[in-house]
Amino acid sequence: MSDNHTKEIRSKNMSHIRSTNSKPEEIVRKYLFSKGLRYRKNVRNLPGCPDIVLSKYRVIIFVNGCFWHHHNCPRFVWPSSNVEYWKNKIDHNVERDKKNKELLLAQGWRVITIWECELKKKVREQCLEKLYQEIVELN
Ligand SMILES: [Zn+2]
């Protein structure tokens, strides 16, 4: 077997590993794509650099980690050390999220937030179906 060949197999394996450990925003993107929706991702010229932008529907989706964006759910637990540091950091994130959302709403976007915990295997399908309905039906 040539070196090139083994490299190719290796990179295929690697991409398989990556795709099975999808990041939350990738899960949402893949689903929307499979439903025939087209989007832009990580759009830097919009407030908050949204993860997913569906221009046709004027919809913006943020896929938020429960810890970093302080979701009111069991996944969010304040760290037990450096309390002050984390409090400042997380509160700052929440404040920034709020500001970005206001700016986007003022520009006529609908803003939908999907939380990491809503993408757990057990509840994922339900969450994604609801998201899809929200995107296409309210348009
Ligand atoms: Zn959560």
UniProtKB/TrEMBL annotation:
Claim: Transport is one of the keywords in the record: no
Keyword annotations: DNA damage, DNA repair, Endonuclease, Hydrolase, Nuclease
GO molecular function term, any single one: endonuclease activity
Gene3D superfamilies: VSR Endonuclease
Pfam families: Vsr
Location of the region described as Disordered in the Swiss-Prot/TrEMBL record: 1-20
EC number: 3.1.-.-
InterPro entries tied to this protein: DNA_mismatch_endonuc_vsr, Restrct_endonuc-II-like
Basic and acidic residues bias (residue ranges): 1-11
EC class (word): hydrolase
Family: Belongs to the vsr family.
Biological role stated in the UniProt entry: May nick specific sequences that contain T:G mispairs resulting from m5C-deamination.
Protein name per its UniProtKB record: Very short patch repair endonuclease
Lineage of producing organism: Bacteria, Bacillati, Bacillota, Clostridia, Lachnospirales
